Amino acid sequence: MYQQGEALQLMRKIEASGALSASAVQAVVATLREFGEKARELGAASIEVVATSAVRDAQNRDELLREIVTDDGMAVRLVSGEEEGDLAAHAVQCTLPVRDAVVVDMGGGSLQLSLLRDRLRVASMSFPLGALRLADRFLVGDPPSPDALVALRRHVVHALGVVPWLPGAPLVAAGGSARVLAKMARKAADWRVKHGHGYWLDHDAMLDMYERLSRAPARERATVPGLPASRVDSVVAVALTLSTLTRLARQPGMHLSTYGIREGVAFRALHGPEPIDDPAAAGIAGRLGGEGPASAYAPHGLSARESRLFRAATGQPTSVLIDKPIQGFWQEEILRVVAAR
Question: For the whole model, what pTM was predicted?
Fold first, then answer.
């Protein structure tokens, strides 16, 4: 799957009138034109454009949507916050072994929670708790003041404390905000796996990052390994929000999915509205070329799923297990297979 991104940060381009600025509209149109050309160059048979929180909030969203359509012939679909959460949850269902969990999608303008029970999505909620929105409203100092941090935490607790199905639910975080926290944690730990999909982000690690980052001015945060320049001013809001969410869920941490809304759109277009039945089979086929024979040797102590991965990787270098994501497996499972080789 080819991916290309552009950090437009549209939440910060909404003017006092509530409209997206003219320059923001132009930037969106130019970016979509570039992406459309690239998609056609790669042979895409169809192009789907999905707009989320910042466009939902903009007073001139209808004008923006019309301009995109007339400029390049691409129709844009504006999704609700609940559908945004459903798309992220769909990507998680297709690429990780989840049955019962709450999928967390934190973007720049909003945060979505989607409840999965027995691999079925049964509820979704959306909150105006995006990283850029929170940073701009609460964390204006450099570094932010203790009072500002307390106010932000109270705001998050007040918003998310009403979710009846959050306490006790395992968490899986999708999207760029959580991905940045996980990347910093992996860099600090010199993590062996070279990607973040299926990574376990410990609550204590989140708190440690929050404590260090919230006390540091932006120029110091900019030197932290794994933290992109575009996230320097919002990462404190992310660390505080996700660590608070983890505490409200009464969980020791959360797993990470590097597949989110974009991949959810793609999976639905390719495979229909239902999630992939066996993500592990898809991951093994896509990364390792297929299953190994069931009669092949697998060490004692591995689970059935881990033995399946061990057999499929027999005769292949260890790098095939750790260099790129293998859909359908948690990283702790992959590392147990690596240790057993």
Answer: 0.91
